[in-house]
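Input record, target 12 of the design panel.
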């Protein structure tokens, strides 16, 4: 059995075992910063459990046994920008990739070839053995993501970093942060400081609020970037805006600040769309978020704008789209934006209807986030205490056993950018609850986004998922021990 998740494109086992010891060294080309960074990351990853830190040294032409060699080879063909080749023999390990992302993902695969105890934060005795073989691997889709809702309940920087680390272990590469909603505004905007200072105080159920300073947000972005993950910030517009309206009443159609909202109903709030103050708000807020975010995307929400007429909604989305473009970003929005006229390059995110097809018909790329399959806030079953059930229960098999290319009738596979699993937090207040709802389902989403469709099957996935249980135990992940899986 190949124990790896996501399943690699090609795995050819061979005879023998590589023994990782204190004498093992990591060899890189010191003139290539990407290999130096990858080597340091690998050494740091292994050190806590192994009890020793492998030295990162300059490679030599005739390296002897006992080395892990990392090479950046742009001329490698057929692997894209995220693929890699990993060759393990009893005497040495060679990892090569066309780009830095591939080196990082190859390290994640190497990590899963080691015993689960390698994930321990405390030293373990080993032995640290890696089975011989060759893996050639690259992703099916370029967009492999998760969404974390920090608006309904706020999660501090360390919680987000932890979530990023768990995503990265399974080769996910997009973290969509839902930063604003009726219940809270979670990012400080210098030109509109009360968005956070006033609008950030509340949360669902009257729980504590909070927000990220610019330094906080920068730390999240940097942590993600070091792990191959692009942050996609969402400022939800024109609905889901009660927190903004409570901070700046001039944005409200009646000019009166509504009280903070701590419930979970949707569709009742809206910006006023025809005032100069709203235009300035849009330009300055989106401009600041764009300037703080090095990635190419800016998500403008656009969902459940029930208080906006269809004509006004379409005009609003087109106006926001122009602002996003002026600030150098690509607009992403929930599937409802497909009702507007979209510019080339726009991205629509499907969640429950056929509106994404309207965007695809205009040439937009499509992210698939079907609520009935990969909304991670849905209950696993009627007996589980956390989560919602409006889209039905989503057990582990349902989250894994579906095919993106066959999900929406009439959607050309070429239009599918990938998959993204949203984790809404109406019922989630603490980090262990996030992990319990995300795992084990998020691992399956990662495989859907990465692995070849023909290679995936539920019967082959179940034992590989079971093998992750001891690994998660070592990592301290609070995962749901689904009865569908025979956990090791």
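The sequence produced for target 12 reads:
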């Amino acid at each position: 059995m190949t124990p790896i998740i996501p399943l690699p494109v090609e795995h050819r086992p061979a005879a023998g075992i590589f023994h990782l010891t204190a004498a093992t060294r990591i060899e890189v080309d010191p003139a290539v910063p990407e290999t130096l960074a990858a080597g340091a990351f690998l050494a740091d990853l292994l050190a806590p459990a192994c009890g020793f830190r492998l030295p990162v040294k300059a490679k030599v032409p005739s390296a002897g046994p006992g080395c892990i060699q990392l090479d950046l080879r742009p001329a490698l063909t057929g692997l894209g920008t995220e693929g890699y080749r990993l060759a393990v023999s009893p005497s040495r390990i060679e990892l090569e990739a066309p780009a830095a992302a591939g080196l990082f993902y190859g390290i994640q695969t190497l990590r899963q070839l080691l015993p689960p105890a390698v994930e321990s934060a405390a030293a373990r005795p080993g032995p640290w053995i890696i089975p011989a073989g060759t893996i050639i691997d690259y992703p099916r889709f370029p967009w492999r993501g998760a969404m974390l809702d920090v608006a309904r309940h706020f999660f501090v920087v360390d919680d987000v970093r932890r979530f990023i680390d768990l995503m990265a272990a399974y080769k996910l590469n997009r973290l969509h942060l839902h930063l604003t909603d009726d219940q809270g505004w979670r990012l400080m905007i210098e030109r509109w400081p009360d968005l956070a200072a006033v609008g950030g105080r509340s949360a669902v159920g009257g729980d504590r609020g909070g927000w990220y300073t610019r330094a906080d947000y920068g730390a999240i972005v940097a942590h993600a970037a070091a792990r191959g993950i692009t942050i996609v910030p969402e400022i939800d517009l024109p609905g889901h805006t009660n927190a903004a309206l409570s901070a700046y009443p001039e944005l409200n159609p009646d000019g009166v600040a509504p009280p903070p909202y701590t419930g979970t109903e949707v569709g009742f709030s809206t910006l006023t769309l025809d005032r100069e103050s709203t235009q300035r708000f849009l330009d300055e807020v989106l401009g600041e978020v764009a300037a703080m975010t090095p990635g190419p995307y800016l998500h403008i929400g656009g969902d459940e704008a029930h208080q906006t007429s269809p004509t006004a909604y379409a005009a609003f989305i087109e106006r926001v789209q122009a602002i996003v473009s002026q600030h150098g970003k690509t607009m992403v929005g929930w599937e409802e934006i497909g009702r507007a006229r979209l510019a080339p390059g726009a991205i629509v995110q499907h969640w429950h209807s056929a509106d994404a097809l309207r965007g695809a018909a205009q040439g937009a790329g499509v992210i698939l986030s079907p609520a009935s399959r990969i909304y991670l806030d849905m209950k696993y079953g009627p007996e589980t205490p956390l989560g919602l059930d409006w889209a039905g229960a989503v057990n582990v098999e349902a989250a894994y056993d579906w095919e993106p290319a066959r999900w929406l009738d009439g959607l050309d596979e070429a239009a599918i950018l990938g998959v993204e699993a949203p984790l809404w937090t109406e019922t989630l207040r603490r980090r262990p609850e996030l992990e319990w709802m995300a795992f084990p389902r998020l691992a399956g989403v990662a495989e859907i986004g990465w692995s070849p469709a023909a290679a995936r099957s539920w019967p082959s996935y179940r034992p590989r998922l079971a093998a992750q249980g001891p690994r998660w135990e070592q990592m301290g992940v609070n995962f749901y021990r689904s009865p569908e899986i025979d956990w090791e």
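The longest strand covers residues 10-20.
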